[in-house]
Amino acid sequence: MAVRTCAIVGRFSDARIAESVGALLPHLASRGVQALAAEDAPLGDAGRLVTRVPEREIGARADLVIAIGGDGTLLYAARLLCGHRVPLLGVNRGRLGFLTDVMPQDMLGAVDAALAGKLDADERPLLAAELRFAAGPVARALALNDVVMQKHDTGRTLEFETRVNSTYVNTHDGDGIIIASATGSTAYALSCGGPILEPHLDALVIAPICAHTLSDRPIVVSARSTVEVRLLERPDTHAHVTCDGMLLGALSPGDRLQISTAAERVTLLHPPGQDYYKLLRSKLHWGRGSFER
User: Fold this and answer.
1) What is the C-alpha separation between 7 and 38, in angstroms, rounded?
2) Model pTM?
3) Pairing of strands 203-209, 219-222
4) Active-site residue 236, yes or no?
5) Distance CA 238, CA 279 (A)
6) Distance set, CA 253 to CA 238, 239, 256 (Å)
7) Are 259 and 178 in contact (CB under 8 A)?
8) pLDDT per residue over 199-239, tens digit each?
9) What secondary structure, in 3-state letters, does the chain show?
10) Where are the domains of the chain?
11) 257: region left, alpha or beta (phi > 0 left; psi from -120 to 50 alpha)
12) Are 227 and 128 in contact (CB under 8 A)?
């Protein structure tokens, strides 16, 4: 499909990101591509080269979205695209960058390749989280990386149960739990001792956070599973649920958090021949000995 409109997403007040945007916008204009940005995006003089749109309309109006920043920026952009089959290209101006894999010096070449349809399309499944309150209402959200339930404003640990497909798994005592997609296995779950999954593996990671019992270890389950978390009664129990770092709601005893694989997907664009293991070596500093190739 021809790219006629391209939306730019990023923390434009950051000088590094503003530098990339300053180079990108005239480049898009020279290619006859209309640039879109959110109404309140602080673009300064570069704003004359963009069309301002309500942020919620970006997914419907763009043919391509470019996220400039770190993985958090790309996750934010992915939420804007839910329900729209719009490809997403990430330019890394952050720190680690597992998802934003185009470096700033390669940005314009990667954009030209995207406009020509020469980048590799990579569909990633999303997680669907449902917070079912005892009083009846339901809060829902989608996540690309992970859904996290953790303690909030308390020095006490939480006690909670997990179930997979309605089958009881364990009663946990700790700071919370992470349910991560294969994509999100290299995010928060990794810092809790979770395994690294190849991003297209049909699996979920369930990783306890600071478990009080050393034997309470991360487990891997089928991505076709529904994972349920229930908070148990305990004094001073306060927990909240986040989806890719964005608050979904508070979880109280009697409420249920259910996570499953969503029908929606996000399409990421990568340079041709992307090597996932090379990416791991680069980001995690593997292979620094005599066998590095």
Assistant:
1) 8
2) 0.92
3) antiparallel
4) no
5) 38
6) 9, 9, 8
7) no
8) 999 999 999 999 999 999 999 999 999 999 999 988 778 89
9) CCCCEEEEEECCCCHHHHHHHHHHHHHHHHCCCEEEEECCCCCHHHHHHEEEECHHHHHHHCCEEEEEECHHHHHHHHHHCCCCCCCEEEEECCCCCCCCCECHHHHHHHHHHHHCCCCEEEEEEEEEEEEECCCCCEEEEEECCEEEEEECCCCCCEEEEEEECCEEEEEEEECEEEEEECHHHHCHHHHCCCCCCCCCCCEEEEEEECCCCCCCCCEEEECCCCEEEEECCCCCCCEEEEECCEEEEEECCCCEEEEEEEEEEEEEEECCCCCHHHHHHHHHCCCCCCCCC
10) 5-119+271-284, 126-263
11) beta
12) no
Q: Give the mean model confidence (pLDDT) for residues 125-152.
A: 94
Out of 14, 40, 63, 71, pick the active-site residue. 71
Contact 39, 57 (CB under 8 A): no
Q: Which fold has domain 5-119+271-284?
A: Rossmann fold (3.40.50)
CA distance 292 to 45: 45
pLDDT tens per residue, range 14-52: 999 999 999 999 999 999 999 999 998 888 887 889 999
Torsion sign over Cα 100, 143, 183, 186: positive
Topology match between the domains 5-119+271-284 and 126-263: no
Place of tokens 């006859």: 32
Q: What is the CATH number of domain 126-263?
A: 2.60.200.30
Are the beta carbons of 173 and 158 closer than 8 angstroms? yes
